[in-house]
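STRUCTURE REQUEST FORM
Protein name: Thioredoxin
Source organism: Sulfuritortus calidifontis
Requested output: structure tokens
Priority: standard
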Amino acid sequence: MTLQHHDKAHDKAVAGRLIFDTDLEHFERDVVEASKQHLVLVDLWADWCGPCHFLSPVLGKVIPEYAGKVRLAKVEVDEGDNMKIAGRHGARGFPTVLLYKNGEMVDRFHGAKPEHFVREFIDQHLDA
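Status: completed
Returned output:
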């Protein structure tokens, strides 16, 4: 029962949000399944990572500009079993940003990037 309650609370917290936290337990639903409705970027980050702290506000500014066509799932790799997500995707450094579309991971980039790079990265996958 606790797990179902937790899942409902998590679903409610994520529903309709453009930027949200996710974890290994919810990754399939929050990212893979959701990417069948809209693009989902996954920000694999760590608190100790300087470039992660540079990229986070860039993503936070750019994502809302797409008016719901793109969502951002943030994964703190040092929490719980979240490093398994990074391992499954071959992330060797942070930040690593994955792009999911139609239920599949289709592209990625590594490191801190400026706004124009992030917009171009997203734009090349919209309506493509």
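Reviewer notes: Confidence is low (pLDDT under 50) at residues 1-5. The longest helix spans residues 2-14.
Form closed.
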